[in-house]
Amino acid sequence: MKNLKQEEERYLRAYGSGAVSLDAFTSVSEGLKVNRDLLEKRLAELRKQRDTASQIRLSLDEICLRAKKVIKGLNFNEKRAIIEVVLDRVVANQKEAVIKGYIPLVEENYQDVKLWSSSRNCGDAECGKVNAV
Length: 133
Description:
The protein is mainly alpha-helical and 133 residues long. It has helices at residues 2-16, 22-72, 76-86, and strands at 87-92, 97-101. The chain has 2 domains: 1-73; 75-104, no CATH class. The protein has a two-stranded antiparallel ribbon with strand order 1-2. A hairpin with a 4-residue loop joins strand 1 (87-92) and strand 2.
């Protein structure tokens, strides 16, 4: 946006000094206006996406807090039953453990779920080392 504004000012100065004709100045100005409008529209879309992502993050944080409270109140057998439903397979050796599973979803909530991970590697553990969190 800043570059477009500077370019527009350069053409205005060039037109003012007589180096560029009115037709050329009008043509360039219209092109710059179109580019500026497109950039402003894209910026508005990105801001909207950022706001939506923030709302989703708040919702997920709230869900996690509620889940922690519920899980805290469960006994061992209830916790084990949840693990059996969620985990599909665990393969481990002396260096690593690979845990595969899924979280079953209710069909009416599918539209709210995005199938991506924002940060899989949290950086708490290093390869071959044990770090307490």
